[in-house]
Specification:
By secondary structure, the chain is an alpha+beta fold. The longest helix has 11 residues. It has one domain: YefM-like domain (YefM-like fold), CATH 3.40.1620.10. The chain has 2 helices and 3 strands; from the N terminus they run βααββ. A hairpin with a 2-residue loop joins strand 2 and strand 3.
Length: about 80
């Protein structure tokens, strides 16, 4: 990850954005040596492809099944 200070980021903003677009790299912006922000490329997510973590979730009941009388909470 490339690290730049705020002054450099301000002066080279367009150039840094072009670098991110081309390489997909990340750029960290620091103030006095402390991280303030990260510049990263925007990746549109494909909602048709399931997330890898979601495939590990197992539901052992039918979430659309209605509750029985005994399962309703008491008011």
């Amino acid at each position: 990850m490339k690290v730049v200070n705020i002054h450099e980021a301000k002066n080279r903003f367009s150039e840094l954005l072009a670098e991110i677009e081309q390489s997909g790299s990340k750029i960290r912006i620091c103030r006095n040596g402390k991280p303030v922000a990260d510049l990263v490329s925007c990746k549109p997510c494909n909602r048709l492809i399931p997330h890898s973590v979601m495939s590990r979730i197992n539901i052992k009941y039918d979430p659309t099944e209605p509750l029985s009388e005994t399962e309703w909470p008491d008011n």
